[in-house]
Amino acid sequence: MTNDERWFPSHLKELGEPECLELLAEHHVGRVAYCDDLGPVVLPVNYAVDQGTILIQTSPHSTLASRLRTAPASFQIDEFDEYTQTGWSVLVRGSAAYVDPTDLPADEDRPHTWAEGQRSLHIRITPHEISGRRLLPA
Amino acid sequence: MTNDERWFPSHLKELGEPECLELLAEHHVGRVAYCDDLGPVVLPVNYAVDQGTILIQTSPHSTLASRLRTAPASFQIDEFDEYTQTGWSVLVRGSAAYVDPTDLPADEDRPHTWAEGQRSLHIRITPHEISGRRLLPA
């Protein structure tokens, strides 16, 4: 993929994978994306990082559950400051799969979902590619 | 699509299209998503709302330009508060196409990109479906 010109400017910096992983570990809300017949779907979710993968939690009856049984999926986080017009973003491209309950980390290391409701299914996104960018002050 | 259980909880409210459009009009940074052979890609962009469509701006040589010549695309915005664990999100599903320069709005109504660099190409995402959700305090 030729990403060079995705953001063109001089004050844009590519992030290395270690910095991307640090940013992922520091945050708790991101966006999971998948493709259906009509194109891409992007949905906010709570998440946790588990051994270099992204763990999310959902109801087994949700659209997310039906779409992410075994599928290409991405996970994205970002943060922007409208005043300084700066920010950063991290994109994890990978594949999603259901998690066997015996493969889950300890309770405190699982995603903590803000929304109420039964979410007994865990889905793991295993990264194939992690990239990130930081937009510095002009 | 059965979205009912996308977020399951009692304190989650579906947003009507007028409120989604208001939120879109009030913001300047969002995420464009498309699908390539490896799955979904989600990238932050500056945008403007133009007659109910989403306008973004990019370099004609960018990956975004090559992917969004005529393609299904989505656009997403959201905002979250980690302290109150509340937030909202809006998802625009639609199709992307290049904009003929004669169809562009006046300068002040075009997207204002934070990043520097030549971005002579405008892309319009025309919505097929607009949905949104608000996560209220528990």
Q: How would you explain this protein's 3D organization?
A:
The structure is a homodimer. By secondary structure, chain A is mainly β. Chain A is built from two helices and eight strands. The longest helix of chain A has 10 residues, at about 15-25. The first copy, chain A, has a single domain (about 5-135), classed as Electron Transport, Fmn-binding Protein, Chain A (Pnp Oxidase, Chain A, Roll), CATH 2.30.110. Helices cover about 10% and strands about 50% of the residues of chain A. In chain A, strands 1, 2, 3, 4, 5, 6, 7 and 8 form an eight-stranded antiparallel β-sheet that branches. Chains A and B meet through strand 2, strand 3, strand 6 and strand 7 of A and strand 2, strand 3, strand 6 and strand 7 of B.
Name a few traits of the molecule.
homodimer; Pnp Oxidase, Chain A; globular; mainly beta; about 140 residues; disordered N terminus; 2 helices
Please describe the topology of this protein.
Two copies of one chain form a homodimer.
Chain A: E1 12-15, H1 17-26, E2 29-36, E3 39-46, E4 48-50, E5 53-58, H2 63-67, E6 70-81, E7 86-98, E8 121-135
Antiparallel strand pairs in A: 1-8, 2-3, 2-6, 4-5, 5-8, 6-7, 7-8
